[in-house]
Amino acid sequence: MSVALIGKVVWVLGIVAWYAIRYPSERRARRTRVVSDRRSTTEAVGLSAALLGLAFVPGFYVATGKPEAADYTAHLWAVILGAILFCMAMWVFRRTHKTLGRNWSISLQIREKHELISHGPYALVRHPMYTSFLLMALGQAFLLANWVVGLAGVIGFAVLFFLRVDKEERMMLEIFGPEYRAYMDRTKRIIPYIY
């Protein structure tokens, strides 16, 4: 098995793990009443960009090998690093879903009896879900030896993050007020102690 193929297999396994983690939360969310919905066209664009960059573009590449003109030589060290990053992403992703419980939502929504979560991964960063997507994007760039696919993940993450995080924080400030402001003062956004 070639190094490039190992990277593709690891990426596919990571995406299967991602869906296996996400699915129970999606099912539970359908049963919990939404009391405030802030979905918008901008949010839909961000979610679509992330899905395109982190799933569709790499999935097409894994299935077809295109665009092959953007391929470069796959190295074992890069695939190992990509696998580590992807595993870290899935660990953070799972912890985030587990910690959020019934508060989880794919979009900007407040659920009935919504609580401010500040423990688990939320003790280190305000948006660990975005942390997991950043780790996924970086892992993808190392796992799949193709410039277009590597950039697609990073760009998809960046579009989602920059279109959505400010709105998400404004919504949390409206709902939780000074409690969220104090939480913002003691945590970083997505990278512990840095940003």
Automatic annotation (TrEMBL):
Keywords tagged on the record: Membrane, Transmembrane, Transmembrane helix
Subcellular location: Membrane
Primary localisation category: membrane
Molecular function as annotated in GO: protein C-terminal S-isoprenylcysteine carboxyl O-methyltransferase activity
InterPro entries, sorted: ICMT_MeTrfase, Isoprenylcys_mtase
Its membrane topology: Multi-pass membrane protein
Recorded superkingdom: Bacteria
Protein name: Transmembrane protein
Upper classification of the organism: Bacteria, Pseudomonadati, Pseudomonadota, Alphaproteobacteria, Hyphomicrobiales
